């Protein structure tokens, strides 16, 4: 892809996914645009085994934008990094088309293992602010990762993951994340569990009170029966 075509595509991507942009010229100020342009150059150098030059280009971009993309990562078209500060993309990361990352996202490994050690993100994935995806596994198409989530296992397509460690809380969501970019209205399993515990607690209290009333009624009936027996015995005597 030529530089002019790349710039036109980036303008379209950023305008599609960032409502704050007011003009095409603003694209040139975006850290996402600048760092991905540098990544394309660094990745080409990396593939030609010019490793030092590749890292020099990528580290220079990281210092200027706060976004660190290893030149060995493989990134498809339409990647959008909103704000971007603190984003880290590891060497063996694979990113599909039309993926959206927010600030503070880490696509990292879990140690010093060799070979493929970073995640693979399929098309249309959205990773919300502060989320960490660690390890060599796949995040399926159209998946959505909630803010602050720590994902350590594969995620099927069309799923929503939240929490630490990440848990799948919604499956079969067919809406494409890049069309709505909603980081807020995600299921909250912790709140749901607390609400369920509160409901169970209220139910148990009602049952205990009902049992107490029942026991009191039985005690009262027993007392009346004893008194009646005493009276009958007295009359017999």
Automatic annotation (TrEMBL):
GO terms for cellular component: cytoplasm. Its EC number is 2.3.1.30. InterPro entries: Hexapep, LbH_SAT, Ser_AcTrfase_N_sf, Ser_O-AcTrfase, Serine_acetyltransferase, Trimer_LpxA-like_sf. Pathway: Amino-acid biosynthesis; L-cysteine biosynthesis; L-cysteine from L-serine: step 1/2. GO terms for biological process: cysteine biosynthetic process from serine. It is an enzyme of class 2 (transferase). The keyword Transferase applies. Residues 194-221 form a coiled coil. Keywords: Acyltransferase, Amino-acid biosynthesis, Coiled coil, Cysteine biosynthesis, Transferase. One of its GO terms (molecular function) is serine O-acetyltransferase activity. It catalyses: L-serine + acetyl-CoA = O-acetyl-L-serine + CoA. Belongs to the transferase hexapeptide repeat family. This is Serine acetyltransferase.
């Amino acid at each position: 892809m030529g530089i002019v075509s790349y710039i036109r595509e980036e303008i379209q991507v950023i305008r599609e996914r960032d409502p704050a942009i007011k003009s095409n010229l603003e694209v040139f100020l975006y850290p996402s645009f600048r760092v991905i342009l540098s990544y394309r150059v660094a990745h080409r150098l990396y593939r030609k085994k010019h490793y030092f030059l590749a890292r020099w280009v990528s580290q220079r971009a990281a210092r200027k934008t706060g976004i660190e993309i290893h030149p060995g990562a493989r990134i498809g078209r339409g990647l959008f990094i909103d704000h971007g500060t603190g984003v880290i993309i590891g060497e063996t990361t694979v990113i599909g088309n039309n993926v959206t990352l927010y600030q503070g996202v880490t696509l990292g490994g879990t140690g010093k293992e060799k070979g493929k050690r970073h995640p693979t993100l399929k098309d249309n994935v959205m990773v919300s602010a502060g989320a960490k995806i660690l390890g060599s596994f796949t995040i399926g198409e159209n998946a959505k990762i909630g803010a602050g989530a720590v994902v350590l296992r594969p995620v099927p397509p069309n799923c929503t993951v939240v929490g630490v460690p990440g848990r799948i809380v919604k499956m079969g969501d067919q809406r494409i994340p890049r069309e709505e970019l909603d980081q807020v209205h995600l299921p909250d399993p912790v709140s749901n569990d607390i609400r369920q515990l509160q409901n169970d607690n209220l139910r148990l209290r009602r049952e205990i009170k009902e049992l107490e009333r029942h026991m009191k009624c039985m005690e009262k009936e027993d007392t009346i029966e004893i008194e009646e027996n005493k009276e009958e015995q007295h009359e017999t005597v």
